[in-house]
Amino acid sequence: MNYHDPVMKAESVKALGIQLGGTYVDATFGGGGHSRAILEDLEGSGKLFGFDQDDDAKSNVPNDGNFIFIDSNFRFIKQYLRLHGVREVDGILADLGVSSHQLNEAERGFSFRFEAELDMRMNQNADISAKEVINEYKESDLVRVFSEYGEIRNSKTLAKTIVTERRLRKIENSQDFINMIGADVRGKRNRYLAQVFQAIRIEVNDEMGALKDFLTESLEVLKPGGRLVFISYHSLEDRLVKNFLKSGNFEGNQIKDFYGNIERPFKLITKRAMEPSKEEIELNPRARSAKMRVAEKK
Q1: Domain termination site, one of 172, 204, 236
Q2: What number of CA atoms fall less than 13 Å from residue 188's CA on the CB side?
Q3: Does 228 reside within a domain?
């Protein structure tokens, strides 16, 4: 089985507008599918930096002199590029979310399909796992996690159930957790559980905070005329990306200069988000929720 099938691989690499000898970043290296496609077009003195905090990704690093792997969360993009003597890059690609490999490795605890220890850490050396969130978070914090990151309508009821049940026993694995919240499921079971697991995963990995840091630093390290390419999989990510590319801030507020002109740091290459083709979705069903946005720094 492949580590991960890159979503909209051809479209996203084309959107980078790769230049001979340019410097690029694959901010979410994973299985290396996007990176290998970029390297095919990157010749001569060109460089590609691949970021990934998951130890499993290291086994996919290509044997290519133009590629440099950085074992880190992409939120530190500016710091690590400067450690390699790079202050500006020509393009950045980020395929956000969880990889097929992470979902399919039962012991990682990302999927409700398997019985596994409650983990969900993308960085396996991180301190906080799903187990700590479920067993130790205050009820009010659980409500925040489920409502903000899972957009779960009965967040208060769900949080109350967890707090009540964990007084009786510690929740150790995913099946214990799923059985415990079974009465709280609303609507389609799989969709509800997916939202619950998504919310916990986002909290464990501080995905929204990392994305904000990454977007801010990407604007700083990108050359004028350089491209940002984002592929996101849920509305929280897409909203942040959309607002930032449109306005340079996360709220989408229009900022005007002294003369009343709207200041926009980017030129939008995609006016609306691009979506995978029907053919790609048939081959890779996990691509169905993907949205791609492309912008060019002014």
Answers
A1: 204
A2: 4
A3: yes
What does pLDDT average to in each consecutive run of 10 residues of the chain (298 residues)? 74 95 96 94 91 89 95 97 98 83 56 77 89 96 97 96 95 91 94 93 95 97 98 94 95 86 92 95 90 97
| Same domain flag for 78 and 142 | no
Number of H helices, E strands in the chain: 12, 9
Cα 16 to Cα 12, 20, 35, 97, 228: the distances in Å are 7, 12, 12, 20, 7
Q: What is the CATH number of the domain that holds 134?
A: 1.10.150.170
> In degrees, to the nearest 5, what angle opens at C-alpha 221 toward C-alphas 223 and 14?
60
CA 290 to CA 276: how far, in whole Å?
Answer: 7
Q: How many structural domains comprise the chain?
A: 2
CATH number for the domain harbouring residue 230: 3.40.50.150
Q: How far is CA 250 from CA 23, 31, 209, 237, in A?
A: 27, 29, 11, 11
Residue 160 structural domain = 127-204
Q: From CA 190, how far away is CA 74, in angstroms rounded?
A: 30
